[in-house]
Design goal:
- This protein is mainly alpha-helical and 204 residues long.
- It has a domain of 138 residues: Cytochrome c oxidase, subunit III, four-helix bundle (Four Helix Bundle (Hemerythrin (Met), subunit A)), CATH 1.20.120.80.
- The protein contains seven helices and no strands.
- It starts with a helix and ends with a helix.
- Its main location: membrane.
Length: 204
């Protein structure tokens, strides 16, 4: 074991323990299942894209300014999350805490705007039961928003543990895994932004 640890002494902090490496590998496998989940939701949305049942159309409700704000918040949070990982590899606990907290604040802002958006749509007559299109819309975006919310609470827990134990190979692996999760959600949002909002805004 000592030899194994020594042989990985030049590796990034999160890869210096066998448990950390296995956990990271396991999480990549988990992301494969997440990709399958969102691929199914996107496929369902694509099939039901024109099934509005004569009701309100997405172009009538989508607000380009609001969508751009949400996109800015989430993509910026991915950038700050990357800085946090960089600080982690430098061994700066303070840097990790600062940049991860900024990441969480940006993520919370995104969720707040999404809840506002959903509430606005409901008041305008677009609900899960309005049409097949809006059902697919709310399920897809709601699933993504739920994942972001779970990520926020998960990262808070990891930060509390890291604050208590310091930057170790174990806590670093958890931070790195949470960053993978966060970046994955940002990638999913890019597909939502393009496939849902941009297309929805031009299809009047």
């Amino acid at each position: 074991m000592e030899h194994a640890e020594h042989s990985n002494s030049n590796a990034p902090m999160e890869y210096r323990s066998e448990i950390g490496r296995l956990n990271i590998l396991g999480f990549w496998i988990f992301l494969g299942a997440e990709i399958a989940l969102f691929s199914t939701l996107f496929a369902t949305y694509a099939v039901l894209h024109n099934r509005t049942a004569g009701g309100v159309l997405p172009a009538e409700l989508f607000d380009a300014k609001l969508v751009l704000i949400m996109t800015f918040l989430l993509l910026t949070s991915s950038f700050t999350c990357g800085i946090a990982v960089h600080e982690m590899r430098r061994g700066s606990l303070k840097g990790v805490m600062i940049w991860m907290i900024i990441t969480l604040l940006l993520g919370a802002g995104f969720v707040s705007y999404e809840l506002y958006e959903f509430n606005h749509y409901v008041h305008e007559g677009a609900t899960l039961s309005t049409s097949a299109y809006w059902s697919a819309f709310f399920v897809l975006l709601g699933t993504h928003g739920l994942h972001v919310s779970i990520g926020i609470f998960w990262i808070i827990g990891i930060l509390l543990q890291t604050k208590k134990r310091g930057l170790t190979p174990q806590t670093s692996a958890k931070l790195f895994i949470s960053s993978l999760y966060w970046h994955f959600l940002d990638v999913v949002w890019i597909f939502i932004f393009t496939g849902v909002y941009l297309i929805g805004l031009v299809n009047v």
